[in-house]
Every structure is written in structure tokens, then in C-alpha cells.
User: Fold this.
Amino acid sequence: MSSVTQRLILWLAIIVASLLAVLPTVMTVPSWWPLGKPIRLGLDLRGGTHLLYGVDLDEAVRQSLRAAGREIELALREAQVGAFTADVEADQLIVRLADDGRLKDAQSVVERRAPDLVVAPGSGAEGADLTLTLNERARQAIRSNAVEQALQILRNRIDQFGVAEPSIQAQGSDEIVVQLPGVQDPQRAKALIGQTALLEFRMLAQGPDAGTLERPGASVDVLPGVSQGGQRQRYLVERRLVMGGDVITDARVRNDVDGYYVDFTLDQRGAALFGDATTRGVGRDLAIILDGQVQSAPNIKEPITGGRGQISGRFKVEEAQDLANVLRNGALPAPLQLREERTVGPSLGRDSIQQGQMSFLVGGAFVVLFMLVYYKGGGLIADLAVTMNVVIVLALFALFGFTLTLPGIAGILLTVAMGVDANVLILERVREELREGKGARAAVDAGYDRAWTAILDTHVTTFVSGLILFQFGSGPVRGFAATLCLGILTTLFTAVWATRLVYDTMAGTGRLDSVSV
Assistant:
């Protein structure tokens, strides 16, 4: 099999695969269709929900202090220093000790386990205190990382939520833009996005030190429970933390006769903490707290040492799925504040698509007509190459799940222009060779060779520009740049490789006696 035949078979296979991939976008196909799904449309074409969130960076610092407080309590217990509480007050962590004679021991433990905290001994109303604050380097690192962490967690949550190709991007120093194409009822999405998902396990307070709901004890919090039958129960909960949600490695939805619940799996450290707490707390009630609300408070009948547990609360299936989602992906580093909400109707998208189609058809018709009139047979080959270039780009969008937006349409139009430009360079060089008296085959070979340098230069330059736009741009600019870079690669393939294949095929069959340019 000759080289030309092999290239021709490859080209025909690419054409067939591209048409199969694009067809679901333009018409309804059966479920067994082998390639691709309809091209995903962006918010500007399909409609959907636009949300702008602000990240509470000050609260990110306080949450980091609370996490440090839990670690310090554990370290002090291991050192048998005995911490009453480690509470965050303003931007400081206040550690109250049972024995003021152990202050130096406590300070040594803190300095060893929490090097980012600055220790300032003091005295408080309930005994000796350690006042801890974050040093400036750690504070700035937390603030700068909070938005990035929130972005990653939101992406994971929304990916599992099932929205097709959402756009989640940082804006400024403390804002996140979320665009959800096709979502016209954003309530469930907002609940999922805005949920901090701070999970805590604490014992219910008991005995005389617990106090009452009106006058809780010194180391006791009053927390609301989930609403049942329109009534919201309140609980007396110890401030001391058994463990946090950071030890959860997986969470799945299960159901039984009482409804849906969330089954969770703990890592090695969490399994040890849970096993120890349930061993010492047999007969007591364990509060499972999500974002300051008691989801359930089961009674510990026996030690739980298998590293598994469950959260029940008479959930609906969507509620259980969302809870499992946020537990799997972790808590946000700081609460999100909804600053702007817009719902974009699909009518704008339909108008944009219709106008884009009209401009593409009218502009494309003029280009095709010009190439046919000015370059004759060579123009026909170029028109076919440009048409297949667009089909291949759209096929790649469908196969890889890329999202088509208005800037993407602009990138495709520029790709068409680049393809026409490359073909014009080739045909003009072929004309020059024919004027010098060369034969058809020699003129074609020389024309492609002479045009290649200029084509490669323009395409590489444009491709690098697209990479720069993609790297430093955001939103629509990145969409345009991605489409442009993809189109540059397909243009080189169709404008040079595919059109050359046509002439080589004609030469191989003895039909290249003359060139119509």
C-alpha cells in the first residue's frame, strides 16, 4: 500500500469520525450512536445561573485558630497538662489550664506543636491562660490560600452536583465567580456552594456542670438541632471536640426503613479518636454537628472501633447526596457570602446562536464564493479544507466535552480566517511557479515548500499569543484563547496536509496534468 493510499484512508477515517461526532449536535440520534454527545453550550448561549461570592478571609484566620486549638487540646491531654478549653476570642486563641503550675509545661508543648503561634502568657478569670496569636507570615499565608482552597472545593462539589461544564474562577483578592449553564433554579446549587460543611463530633453535656438551656455551664454550648415536625430542639453540648470532619476519607448515601442516611469512613487517626471516645463514652450521647447545627445525637451503646459511622436525620435523597458530597470534599476554609446573583434566560443564548449562525453563514458564503471565483479549482479544494477544519474543531468540542461560548465562536471564525490565509499563500506560490513555466506537479511541490515557512511562522506566532491569553486571561478571554489554539492546530492539518493530499492523489492517478488556480 502506497504512502498516498495510507494517508487517504487516514483522512477519510478522520472525516467520518468527525461527522459522527458532530451529528448529535445538529439532530437527534439513537442511543447507540458511537461517537460524541451534543456540544455543551456556555452560559452566554444556553442560559443559566451567575453567582458572585465573597470569601470571608478574617473568618478563615479564625477557623485556622480553632483547628490549632483542637490540636493543642489533644497535645496537652497527651502531655497530661490538662486543658479546660481552647477558645477563639477575637483573633486570639485563649487556652485555660486546670493547673496554673503547669503553665511552662503547656507553653513548651504549644511552641513544639504549633510553631506558627506566638505565645503570650497571661492570667484569666478562670485560671492561668496562654494567649496565642498567629504570626504575620502564617496569617498572610492563610488569607492568600483561602480563595484557592475554596475554588478547589467548589469545583469538586459542583462536579459531583452534575452541572455540565461549570465555570468557577477567582475574581480579585477575595471573590469567586460561579457560572452554572442550564441551571434555572439555583436554590439547591446555592445551598451546596454556600455550605461551609464544618463537621464536629462532641459529647452532649450531662451532670450538674452542664447547666440548663437558659444558663449553660462554663464549658458548654447551646446548639440548635435539625427541625422535626416544625419544632427545633436545642442541645447542651460540651465545647471539647472529640474529632473534626478532616478525618473523614469517604461518605456515601445509604437507606433503610427510616429513610436515607450518610455512611462515613474515617482515616487511621480518626478511627483511633472515634474508638477512644466511644469506649470512654459508652452510655452517653454523641452530638454530630454540621455548621453549628446538631444533625443527630445517637446514644453510644458500645465502642465503635471499625473506623465507620453514620449521620441520620430523616434526609431526603437530595439532602443526603449533598451532605455526602460536602463531607467527601471537605469543609470550606471560610464562609462564602453571596454578593450577586443573576439568572440568564436561554432566549439571549438563542438570539446569540442565531446571530452567530447568520454571520458565519453570510461571511462564509462570501469567502467560499471569492475563493471559487478567484482561484477556481484550487479555491474549491481550499473551501473543502476550511469546511472540514470547522467540522473537526466542532467534533473535538463534542468528543472532549469542551464548552462552546460566544468567545469560542469568535475563535472558530478566526480559525477560518487563518485557514483561508494559509490556502491563499499556497495558491499564490503555485501561481508564481506556473508563471515561471514549471509543470503542474513541480509547481504544486514548490508552492507548498515556499509557502510553508510563512504559514508556520504566522500559525506559531498566533498559537503563542493564544497561550499567553489563556495563561493570563480569565473567563471569556480564556475561552477564546483555548478555541483559537485548538483551531490553529487543526488549520495546519487541513490547510497544508489535507490539501496536499488531494494534489498527491490526483498525481498518483495521473490527473494532475494542469492546476486550476
Q: What stands out?
A: The radius of gyration is 33 Å. Residues 123-128 have pLDDT under 50 and may be disordered. The chain is about 55% helix and 25% strand. The chain has three domains: 3-41+347-508, 58-137, 195-343.
